[in-house]
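ESCALATION

Customer reports they have been waiting on this structure for their group meeting. Please prioritize. Original submission:
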Amino acid sequence: MKSRLSTVLLIAASCALSACASHHRQIPENERPKEWHPSRDLLTKYDANHDGTVTKAELEAGLKAEFAAADTNHNGCLTPDEVAAINEKRIQEQGSTSTPLIDWNQDGCVDFNEYAGTARSLFTEMDRNEDGKLDPKELNPRAASKAKKGAGQDQGQGGRHHRRGGGGGGDQQPDPDGGANPDGSTNPDPDGN
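Update from on-call: job pushed to the front of the queue and completed.
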């Protein structure tokens, strides 16, 4: 009886440890379920001239047009019924990544600022260089990083340490999430020592 209990406890402990030791990996885009939509999809639809860059002006114009279309009684205030219709449409189109409209100030209506809040916040967060536009690198930094690394390797630069020595970088800013250079490489000693 005691050995059987020990065996059961050993198996349970092994399962628990293996679960703790498993690594969470990010799912590549081509393996993600079709209903998954990256947050950048919320903004790319506002690229009015389809040049691959979303400007703050394009964002605001697109948000105003959407709000005007949703405001069926044209009073600058979305009623609870209008909000419910928009939220239902967002859930159908975007699934679990949809962002619901919320009457944040609890005044019985969703005004334009409440309507535009999520998109504006996301735009500000993604506009790393704060130039008022989201270029393809900001809209999809992983793809831009992969393309840049691949191009560096094709040119015989190895894709990594070609920026050592601190020369000629101009306005390059390190990545605030770990000190990486814009090309994704890290250089703990900017003097090259």
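Sent to customer with the following note: DSSP finds seven helices and two strands in the chain.
Escalation resolved.
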